[in-house]
Amino acid sequence: MGNQTDVSYFVLAGVSSDPQLEPFLFVVFLLIYLLTVVGNGMIMVVIRADPHLHTPMYFLLFHLSFLDIFYSSVTVPKMLQNFLTDKKTISFNGCLAQMSLILLVSCAEIFMLSAMAYDRYAAISDPLHYLGTMNKQVRIRLVGGTWLISIFHALTNTAPVLHLHFCGPNEVNNFSCELPALLEVSCTETFISNMTFIISAVNLGLISFSITLVSYMCIISTILRIHSVEGRGKAFSTCSSHLTVVVLYYGAGMFRYLRPSPASSVILDRLLSVQYSILTPMLNPIIYSLRNKEVKTALWNILRKMKDM
User: According to CATH, what is the number of the domain 4-308?
Assistant: First the structure.
């Protein structure tokens, strides 16, 4: 049985229900989006342009920056458009497409962070064999595996939704078509869709989180065995940026989906969604550039060359 629906479009609730705030919010989120695209774009350009950054860590950072731009571009442009209109609508097919892309890129983000955690473990635990452990073939498999798992996750969760009936009301209680919010407005039983989402999210979340957690347990164990304070500080500095990003992303995501239902709040859900899908992609390039001497040096070298041209 294919999809049946009386709904041709959905109404997105938005970030705020106060129309007077919308011009201000438009400017704020436009600036956030521009910072996200420019910041992550600069990280990608710097990594490509500087041969010193053609290492496994920066190879993975390049793909994380691409995912950050992708993630923001899935939700923010439509949000900005709706700030300027009275009817904050998205077409039925557009909503399904946005939902699928959110599933895809959110899954890719967590597995890319896991791949980066493993990379930091390889660099700190056995630096002499690091380049051999993280050779080109391994890096390609990590990135390719991330995309394959994410595509499977998106398709698995999208397929049950295609068999649901949407007859109204058609207001999605979020600023984007995230799957949980979309299921709330279905006219038919959503048990299969909910269970598919919960099982896949929990399994993939546990796998990626376990990889990250075990990697950092091994990293901490290795750092504690270093005798000199200077050596410990240098080792920790190589993973501090990534650890900051992991805490920001996992912290908001886990609180959003794993907190008890009595603690549920529509406003809090929206704020958490903004944090991990919009703010974190903007903060990532700032965190990596401000805390990374190699990136800052490469960036200044590029800017100096551009000035001399």
Answer: 1.20.1070.10
